[in-house]
Design brief:
This protein is of the alpha+beta class. It has 2 helices and 12 strands; from the N terminus they run H-E-E-E-E-E-E-E-E-E-E-H-E-E. The chain has 2 domains: 1-40; 60-206, Galactose-binding lectin (Jelly Rolls, Sandwich), CATH 2.60.120. The protein is globular, with a radius of gyration of 26 Å.
């Protein structure tokens, strides 16, 4: 036996109304998710500088110390919607690649309240990163910590500023300054290595510090 046509039409109308209400309730949540995604994307919220940068760091440099490709100058290259800092260490000698924390050589940052930094990178061999202060910039006798090889895979790793995580190498010399003093007047992070290495840096976030754009 067939049902009442009026009853069927009322049921259809009620179902449609329920669907419309459900969509209207879901819309704010969808918009919120979109806003969250936008906020999480540095490029979308204008996070980067007007000139090439990675997390607002504009000065990724080959210093000319050791055989590297490029030999000197900026390491920044276009990578999809942003930039990467790429350098190759050639041969068995000490090589140097630099990041100026304040985007100019004369600048320095007080990182004494920072817990450390996140680094997104690829490396085909182990290397070290030195924390170089403004008052003791030159020379290899600096506090450093190991940056492990990633086997060529892109990884994101946290490096603590806890003093027991930092050391020095006899071959490069013992620092004449304390690690705490290096934190208070940090001029740059300097990547050094003595083996062939293909390096690709994609991110650098220092806890509690936001570099100024030039």
């Amino acid at each position: 036996m067939r049902g009442n046509p009026l009853h069927r039409r009322a049921t259809i109308a009620l179902t449609a109304l329920v669907q419309v209400v459900a969509l209207s309730l879901a819309a704010p949540a969808a918009i919120a998710r979109a806003d969250t995604a936008t906020a999480a994307d540095p490029a979308r919220r204008g996070h980067e500088c007007a000139t090439p940068s990675i997390d607002r760091y504009q000065q990724w440099l080959a210093s000319g110390e050791g055989a590297t490709v490029p030999a000197t100058g900026s390491l920044l290259v276009r990578e999809r919607h942003g930039y990467a800092a790429k350098v190759t260490f050639v041969g068995a000698e000490w090589h140097v690649a630099v990041v100026w924390l304040g985007n100019r050589f004369e600048a320095q940052a007080d990182l004494s309240d920072s817990s450390g930094f996140w680094l997104t990178y690829r490396a085909t061999d182990d290397l070290y990163v030195q924390l170089r202060p403004a008052s003791h910039w030159s020379g290899g006798d600096k506090w450093l910590t190991l940056v492990p090889s990633t086997g060529g895979k892109l990884v994101r790793r946290f490096f603590s500023f806890s003093p027991d995580r930092w050391t020095w190498l006899p071959e490069l010399g013992r620092p004449a300054h304390s690690f705490d003093s290096a934190l208070t007047e940090a001029r740059g992070l300097v990547f050094v290595g003595k083996t062939p290495n293909d390096l690709d840096f994609r991110g650098l976030r220092i806890n509690g510090y936001r570099p100024p754009c030039l």
